[in-house]
Amino acid sequence: MTRPAVSSRDLPHPTREEIRLEGVLHALSDPMRLRIVRELAAVGEELSCSHFDLPVTKSTATHHFRVLRESGVIQQIYRGTAKMNGLRRDDLDGLFPGLLDALLDAADRQAVRPKSA
User: Fold this and answer.
1) 75-112 pLDDT, tens per residue?
2) Does the global pTM surpass 0.90?
3) Coiled-coil annotation: which residues (predicted)?
4) What range defines the domain where residue 57 resides?
5) Is residue 117 part of a domain?
6) Are 72 and 91 in contact (CB under 8 A)?
7) Into how many domains does the chain fold?
8) CA-atom Rg of the chain in angstroms
9) Which residues contact 11 (CB under 8 A, 6 or more apart)?
């Protein structure tokens, strides 16, 4: 069962056991969400939502972060007024060994390929 929010500032997250492969793959199938995850993985620490320079509206960015959180890919927590985002690498690696690294490696390889016309 998804952990309920304790207060209005707490955000619900799936427990490790609730994280489903199809949900993770769906979350990572969107280029903006994959971009967020790639950046979190590269930095290796929590980043605030405002850190990300996404070419979408604020409401669309909020939607992308929510999809990532609800699928179990990221953890979001408020620190003061900032909503911090962290990759749930331990949970993902424990449930799906090698999947995150394979997806990130594939995304890195794709990013350097020439764009087809």
Assistant:
1) 999 999 999 999 999 999 999 999 999 999 999 999 89
2) no
3) none
4) 16-106
5) no
6) yes
7) 1
8) 14
9) 5, 69, 76, 77, 78
CB within 8 Å of 55: residues ≥ 6 apart: none
Query: Please, which residues have CB within 8 angstroms of residue 14's CB and are 6 or more apart in sequence?
Result: 2, 3, 70, 71, 72
Q: Give me the residue label for tokens 């309920």.
A: 4
Closest CA relative to residue 104, chosen from 14, 36, 2, 53: 36
Distance CA 14, CA 70 (A): 6
| Residue (of 21, 27, 15, 31) closest to 115 by Cα position | 31
Whether the pLDDT of residue 4 is over 60: the answer is no
Q: Is residue 24 part of a domain?
A: yes
Question: Taking the chain, what is the end-to-end CA distance rounded to the nearest angstrom?
Answer: 46
> Which residues make Cβ contacts (< 8 Å) with residue 79, sequence separation at least 6?
46
